[in-house]
Specification:
Blueprint: E1 11-19, E2 32-48, E3 51-52, E4 59-61, E5 64-71, E6 81-84, E7 87-96, E8 103-110
Antiparallel strand pairs: 1-2, 1-6, 2-5, 3-4, 5-8, 6-7, 7-8
Length: 115
């Protein structure tokens, strides 16, 4: 007997939107993120690469791509980000699986820079 898809959604994630308030001097205050959705997800690592500097040869970027499967929700966009524990992912793509409004697959990229 196999576990249903709902049983595989065991990781709690938070989807956040950037909100910038006015600073009172015609500019914007420090950017902050507000929670849009908290959901349970199945997280699947998809790919990872390493990017090196041409001048120094040091690693400058280490992007990893992950796929998040969550139950169907509205109000998601690629301008938002996913927070999983202390890790942050930028949303690249959002797909409604089979166009039947049951599950959404979100492709996201984690940027881990090394100074």
């Amino acid at each position: 007997m196999s576990v249903s898809r709902v049983g595989k959604l065991k990781n709690s994630i938070t989807i956040q939107s950037l909100s910038q308030g006015a600073d009172g001097y015609g500019g914007y205050a420090s950017p902050s993120y507000s929670t849009v959705i908290t959901a349970f997800a199945k997280i699947t690592p998809k790919s990872g690469t390493q990017v090196f500097s041409d001048k120094t040869g040091r690693q400058v970027e280490n992007p990893h791509t992950h796929e998040f499967l969550i139950r169907y929700r509205t109000g998601l966009s690629t301008a938002q980000r996913i927070k999983f524990g202390t890790r942050v992912f930028d949303i690249i793509q959002i797909n409604d699986e089979n166009d039947n409004n049951n599950y959404i697959t979100i492709k996201a990229k984690e940027n881990v820079g090394i100074a």
